[in-house]
Structures are given as structure tokens and as C-alpha cells.
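YM 10:42: TetR family transcriptional regulator sequence, as discussed on the call
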Amino acid sequence: MAPGRAGAATARTRAKAAKARPDPPGLSREQIVETALRLIDEAGLDGFSLREVARLLGVYPTALYWHLPGGRNTLLAEAAAAALGDVAQPFRTGDDWAEWIRGLFQRYRDNLRRHPNVAPLLGAQLVSNAGVNPQLVEQVLAALEAAGFAGDRLVDAYNAVIAAMLGYVTLELAPKPSDDPTGWASAFEGKIRSLSPSDYPRLTGNLDRLANRAFIVRWQGGVEVPLTSGFDFYVEAFIAGLRAQIPD
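YM 10:58: structure's back
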């Protein structure tokens, strides 16, 4: 049997085994998702496993399949959705579309700053459509229609909004290497500060401003040193660019 089919068959077997058992008392889907998100917050994606989630809940791993037949992928998608929280606020008739987009980006960043280890996962879930969020899609489309986009241009504008929403925050919250983060940070800082002014006059001349405040030129993460002014600039630049694309 091909590896992909074998994996799918294994997942179905586990799901059937879980459904054959009685629903574990006191265990709910919400409790499983909450525990999974807490585990990701504390241990990162490298430390996440169904076995560890089950251990924290005091149940066998097969019990998780009673509520989440899709197993690991389904649970990761649910955890990503939980991290998003209330990001997709309703767009109401009369709302200012630009202000709504501005608020969307801010809520997304605020939520992900509370769960920074979810940032790379969330991008993957949205790209793969594993974590479908119809409310987010509906409200973004409503805001863009109010701005004046329609037809194929509406689709293009929608894709731009989703990509922009994820892009800055994913970079800002990108994790350090997990094997030796302190050693890596020290070595990287030393490398940057040893650059020759004759070879890199603009970089070295602006290094005091750039250090840990600019992408590529930083050895501290976005949780430790938020890139807030850059984020604000990014949002306003994006909205201005989007406004310029509204059909006449």
C-alpha cells in the first residue's frame, strides 16, 4: 500500500476505534483544542503531539479521535482557529472599509502576539485551506465590495488582503533557531557588528537604528522587541496602495 494511503487508513482505523469507545466523561472538543493551544504556546510546534495533548488531559490518545476524527491535522487547524479568535469582526453597512481593514490587521497581530508559536502554523493552515474560516472570507469580501471592488478585481484584492495580513506578522514573530537560541543570537550580532563600513556604508551607518528594529538585521524576536512602528507604516502603505487600485 502507498504511504499516503497507509497513513489515511491508519487515521480511519484510529477514528473507528475511538468511536467504538464511550465518550470520555468530562472531555470536550473545546477542552482538547484549548489544551493543544496551550501546549503550542509553551512548547512550540516541535513539542506538539497528540500523545502529549492526551497526557495533559489524562486520557489515552485514541480518546482524542472521538471528538477530532481527523487527528493531528484537524487539531492543529482548530488550534489555529482558536488563536485567531475574534479577528473577523462583522463589516456593517456604512462602515469605513479602510478603517475595517486597519482593524483587521491590528486584531490579527494582537491575537498572534498572544500566541506567537502559532504564527507559522496559521499561515500554513490558511494556505492549505485546512483551517477554513468562512466568517473571515465573508467579512473581507464585504469590506472590499464596499470599497468598490467587483468581479476578478475583488478576488485580486481579497488575495492581497490575506497575504498582507499574514506577511508582516509572520516575519515579525519568526522564531529563532531552537537548538541554541542564545548562542545563535550572540554569533549573529557579532557578525553584523563586524561588517566593514567600506563594503556596507549604508548598513553600518544606520546600524544603531536598524539593529533589532529591521527585518534581517535583528537577533531578537518580535515578542521581545515588537516592530510596531514598522507595522503601522506597513498597514498605511498597504491601504494606500489598495485605495489606488479601486476601479474608477
